[in-house]
Amino acid sequence: MRFSLQTASLRQLVLLSFFLALIPLAVLLWQSHKALTGLSQHAVEEAEASVASVRRAENMQNLVVDIERAVRQHAVVKTDALARVARTYLDNYRSVLSEVCHNVGQPQLCQQQQYQLQLLLDNFSGLSSSELEPLVQQFRLQQQQLTQKIWLLLEQNLQQQQQYAEQSQQQLAWQTVALVLLTLLLVMWASGRIAAPVRKLDKMIRAIGQQHQFPDEKLTGPRELTELGEQLRWLSSRLQQLEALRLILLRHASHELKTPLSSIREGCALLSEQLLGPLNARQLEVVGLLNGSANRLSVLTEQLLDYNRLLQQAKPEPEWHSPQQLFSECFNDHALSLQQRGQQVELSCELTAIYTDSTLFRRILDNLINNAQAYGSQDSPVWVKLYQREHQLLLDVANNGNPIPTALREKLFEPFQRGTTPRFDSVQGSGLGLSIVADCARLLGGHADIVDVIYADVCIRVRLPLLEEKPV
After folding, report:
1. pLDDT for position 106
2. What is the CB neighbour count within 10 angstroms for residue 87?
3. Backbone angles phi, psi at 405, to 5 degrees
4. Helix (H, G, I), strand (E, B) or coil at 149
5. For the segment 14-60, what is each residue's pLDDT rounded down to a tens digit?
6. Which residues form the Histidine kinase domain (predicted)?
7. Which residues pair with residue 64 across a beta bridge?
8. Is 61 exposed, middle or buried (0-12, 13-18, 19+ CB in 10 A)?
9. Which of 123, 315, 322, 368 is the Cys-Cys partner for 397 at CB 3.0 to 4.6 Å?
10. Helix pair angle (80-104, 129-209), 10° resolution
């Protein structure tokens, strides 16, 4: 089966990445072993050669002493035995000298010593002690020079060995750096082969979650990630279809409900006013119940329409507005419902102008005031605060009443979710109020949450970013 990076599985790609990353490391280990082995062999060879040179030098020194003693004894006592001993020492010195001259590489000095050796070998038997002394001294002096040359050669070999070790170490260091860089490049390439499709998958998931345009480019990479990308593409298409059907259902259902509701409310009004004939008490009570149910259904329909319009608004249109004017218009719209429950609004506004979308901001205010009026205690104030903290615009709407459990706070911002606390007004909630607040805050680039404050039992805080535009 032919292996291809385009069709490889994630496991195969990971194993290939590890294998490629290990190749430079294996080469580095082999080079290190080779360099250390060569350095060790070179050190052993130099050490053996140095020991041999030192031994030969010591042997030559000892032979020179023996030769001096033998030729001097022969000069005093001329016997054949002493002559044979002296010649033996001289012959041994000749063999050692040839080995030393072969290794030292000093031809002139070796020739002089060989000449002096031959001169001493030919003439020692016939010379007296006084005549022999200059030859022996010259022979000893040249031997000392030869020994110095040997030691100098040993020092030079030691320096060369040190230089060789330094060069090997430097070469190994450069090879290590090069192979480590190569390993890093291979690791980066392999991680890029895996990270790139993962980033594209993250982009796809974010596009699905934020309802943005799904990327058109096809995902390339490991087989599992490619298949996951195609499944996300199918999921995005399916969600778009469901979203379109949901919007169509909301739009048609809401509009279709408004016409019969209007007719029902008009009929209930005619019956309540007894324009079609007198009604007894029980009939009037039934008509009142019908009228209240029709009003409640009308409010729920308006909330659905408002939620539908919010979903269709793709981009806010911010402008500079006076927060006092927005608050005043909102409070006037809710004045009657607030008065019925004896609630008063305590406003604290620290800003003179805000740069925001007035429609979205009013929806936030309307739903928060309606929520505080419906769930707040009788004859209790509703606190509204608008202020700035660092780079955020904070809007707090608080009221007294039953505190909201911490476990339910995030859930209440989801569509069609209602808390366990009953409303104090005559309208049954649809569970869209706080969801509309959260969606409006999200469209404005912020978010909403429920916080604890010391002056109220319940506080809903909307955090909005401060934009950089300046008022004209």
Report:
1. 65
2. 17
3. -60, 145
4. helix
5. 777 777 777 777 887 787 777 778 777 877 777 777 777 777 777 77
6. 252-468
7. none
8. middle
9. 368
10. 30
Task: Mention every residue, 6+ apart, whose C-beta is less than 8 A from residue 35.
Answer: 168, 171, 172
Instruction: In whole angstroms, give the CA distance from residue 389 to residue 321.
Output: 19
The two structure tokens encoding residue 78: 């001329």
DSSP-derived 3-state class of residue 314: coil
Alpha-helical segments (H) within 77-106: 80-104
For helices 223-272 and 281-312, angle between their N-to-C axes, nearest 10 degrees: 150
Q: Is the pTM of this model over 0.70?
A: no
Q: What is the pLDDT of residue 398?
A: 92
* Alpha-carbon span 418 to 374, nearest angstrom: 13
Question: With bands split at pLDDT 50, 70 and 90, how would you rate the model's confidence at 470?
Answer: very low
Q: Max CA-CA distance within the chain?
A: 176
Q: Which of 293, 414, 433, 324 is nearest to 373 (CA)?
A: 433
Residue type, 121: L
DSSP single-letter state for residue 407 = G
Domain boundaries 316-465, corresponding CATH code: 3.30.565.10
Domain boundaries, the chain: 10-191, 225-309, 316-465
- The enclosing H or E element of 232 equals helix 223-272
What is the end-to-end Cα distance of the chain in Å, rounded? 70
HSE (CB half, 13 Å, CA atoms) of 27? 13
Q: Which two tokens stand for residue 106?
A: 């000093």
Residue 386 has pLDDT above 90, yes or no: yes
Alpha carbon distance 315, 308 (integer Å): 15
Beta strand 458-465 with 382-389 is unpaired
| pLDDT single digits (tens) 84-93 | 887 887 788 7
With a pLDDT cut of 90, the percent of the chain lying above it is 5
**CA 248/CA 472 separation, integer angstroms:** 41
The C-alpha R_g of the chain, in whole angstroms, comes to 53
